[in-house]
Amino acid sequence: MSDNGLVSVQSRASAPETLDRLLAALATRNLTVFARIDHAAGAASVGLPLRPTAVVIFGNPKGGTALMQEQQSAGIDLPLKALVSEDAAGTAWLTYNDPAWIARRHGLAAASAPAVQAMGALLSAIAQEATR
For residue 115, what is the domain's CATH number? Predict the structure, then answer.
C-alpha cells in the first residue's frame, strides 16, 4: 500500500476479464453491486480516448453500517469500491482503498478494528481471485 491508501494488484488477465472475474467474486460472496461505472465508455461517448477503466461499487450494509454509526464521515468511502484499469503497457490492475487507511482517515476507534480487518481480508481475497 502507498501513503494514499490505495492497494493495487497486477492482473494476469485483460482488464475486461479482470472485471468479469471481480463481478463473479462479488456474486460468489453475495455482495451487492450498487453501481458499475464504465469510465472508458463515458469518455468514448464524448469522443475522448481512455484505456479500459471501470469502477465497481459494492458491499454489504451489515459490514459498513457499524463504521458509519461510529463516524458518519466514513460514508464517503463506503460502500467499498474497486477500480479495474489498463495501463499504457496493456497491463490490467485492480485497485481498492485499504480499509485500515479508511479507518485512520475517519479516526475510527480500536473497537472497529475487527470489522476493518475483516474488510481488508475480504478485499484482498477478492482481488487475488479476480487477478489470477
Answer: 3.30.310.70
Average pLDDT by consecutive 10-residue portion of the chain (132 residues)? 86 98 98 98 98 97 92 96 98 97 94 93 98 96
- Hey, is 105 helix, strand or coil? helix
**How many folded domains does the chain comprise?**
1
**pTM of the model as a whole:** 0.94
Q: What are phi and psi of 54, to 5 degrees?
A: -140, 145
Q: How far apart are CA 69 and CA 71, in angstroms?
A: 6
Q: Where are the beta strands (DSSP E) in the chain?
A: 6-10, 32-38, 53-59, 80-86, 92-97
